[in-house]
Backbone:
């Protein structure tokens, strides 16, 4: 009888090796970070990444997840990042703003909801992001805020945006927005400063 | 002459504070975030700090917490001025080291009065 060399038993696969989503909950930060890197090319991973971000404590993993969401760059990713603008975690909030600022067109699709948020501070964050978007729609959104938002600080933020990306034809709209808040001298000041800048 | 450090990432806000306070006789120095504010506080002395909450790189809370551990800022009165009006934001500001919390937008006469009282010196 011929001798048959016994094949060495194949090692059991590590539970998370083939499933980056599962590895997002891995025991080590390195494992979770690597999972985030792998998921950066998977548009269906937005919810897994964002859910993990909400409970992740390690800064390097948080950064990897934010980078992954930014690289995925879909409207869904932008929406989940906008949700973080209400976070009590200042680092996370600022990091979300920075990530959104670099996402360009994907952010535009998520702006309607962000600019309608009941929380005026979230709307201010959303308005501030407009200035860094290289998209014509950013100007239109800022103009809409000027005309419609009823919170003085949100309108002030929109005036600041138009001071950066507006054009001279928008000066009447800026002045009209300031006139809606006659008891806020700062808004009058901001409108004058913006008008001087874009004139 | 009283010197005031304004820490805020919004250009228009810094300009507004500068114009109002200089008109009242104060000298104003600006910083665009907490890091820059701490650097300026080490390099120069101030009688009062006005600081925003939400800024990139280092926010107002971190600025105050760190500043209160530094000899240059330990005893300097600090006013946190924010768009956030919830009670928890106010409590958080005081816990970080603020002496006063104001909600934006601040009227010019209020800004001048607060600066005069808090700086403790005639402008």
Residues:
């Amino acid at each position: 009888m011929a001798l048959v060399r016994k094949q060495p038993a194949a090692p059991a696969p590590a539970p998370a090796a083939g499933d980056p989503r599962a590895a997002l909950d891995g025991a080590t930060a390195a494992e979770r970070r690597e999972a985030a890197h792998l998921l950066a090319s998977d548009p269906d991973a937005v919810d897994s990444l964002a859910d993990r971000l909400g409970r992740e404590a390690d800064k390097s993993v948080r950064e990897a997840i934010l980078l992954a969401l930014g690289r995925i760059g879909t409207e869904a990713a932008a929406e989940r990042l906008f949700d973080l603008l209400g976070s009590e975690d200042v680092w996370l909030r600022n990091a979300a703003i920075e990530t959104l600022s670099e996402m360009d067109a994907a952010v535009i699709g998520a702006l309607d909801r962000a600019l309608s948020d009941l929380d005026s501070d979230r709307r201010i964050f959303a308005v501030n992001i407009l200035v860094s978007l290289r998209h014509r729609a950013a100007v239109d959104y800022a103009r809409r805020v000027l005309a419609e938002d009823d919170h003085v600080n949100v309108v002030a933020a929109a005036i600041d945006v138009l001071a950066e990306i507006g054009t001279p034809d928008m000066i009447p709209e800026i002045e009209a927005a300031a006139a809606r808040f006659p008891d806020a001298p700062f808004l009058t000041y901001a409108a004058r400063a913006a008008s001087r800048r874009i004139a | 002459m009283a010197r005031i450090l304004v820490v805020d990432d919004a250009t228009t806000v810094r300009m507004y504070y500068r114009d109002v306070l200089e008109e009242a006789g104060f000298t104003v120095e600006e910083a665009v975030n907490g890091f820059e504010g701490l650097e300026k506080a080490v390099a120069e002395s101030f009688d009062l700090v006005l600081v925003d909450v939400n800024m990139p790189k280092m926010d107002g809370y971190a600025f105050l917490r760190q500043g209160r551990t530094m000899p240059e800022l330990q005893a300097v009165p600090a006013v946190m001025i924010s768009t956030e009006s919830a009670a928890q934001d106010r409590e958080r500001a005081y816990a970080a080291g603020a002496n006063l919390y104001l909600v934006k937008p601040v009227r010019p006469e209020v800004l001048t009065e607060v600066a005069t009282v808090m700086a403790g010196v005639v402008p």
About this structure: DSSP finds five helices and five strands in chain B.
